[in-house]
Amino acid sequence: MASVTTLQSDDRPAWEELFCGYNAFYGRTWPADRYDRAWEEFQRGDRVRALGARLDGRLVGIAHFLVHASTTSPDVCYLQDLFTAPEARGRGVARALIRAVGAWASDQGCDRLYWLTREDNHTARRLYDQVAENRGFIQYVVPL
């Protein structure tokens, strides 16, 4: 079973490798300063937070999340990024991260935890369909 903790300063190289993998999955490349900015945000822990999952002491999964206001309920928690190293998939890493983020959000008084994924992300959706309710929303984006 994966153990989940906050990210420590010495996790930076492994975290960046995982976050690069996440971005590559979605066809994105980021300049180094964006990774620096994200890492700094996680270390402050006031706007965006991060957890890491370990198997045998090695960081193999990451979750980035934030809390925001809702007009229809108490605050909600958005799981923005979730990624498991390919060699660790199928070993409960993503499930453990989702559970840990949910527990954290519940402790903060959040009404719910939610996230987005691509419709064609069938591997992840097999897990998501087991641990969450698909409410059928479609996302629209206006780049600014």
UniProtKB/TrEMBL annotation:
Pfam families: Acetyltransf_1. GO terms for molecular function: acyltransferase activity, transferring groups other than amino-acyl groups. Gene3D superfamilies: 3.40.630.30. Signal peptide: none annotated. InterPro entries: Acyl_CoA_acyltransferase, Bact_Acetyltransf, GNAT_dom. Keywords: Acyltransferase, Transferase. This is Acetyltransferase (GNAT) family protein. It comes from Micromonospora sagamiensis.
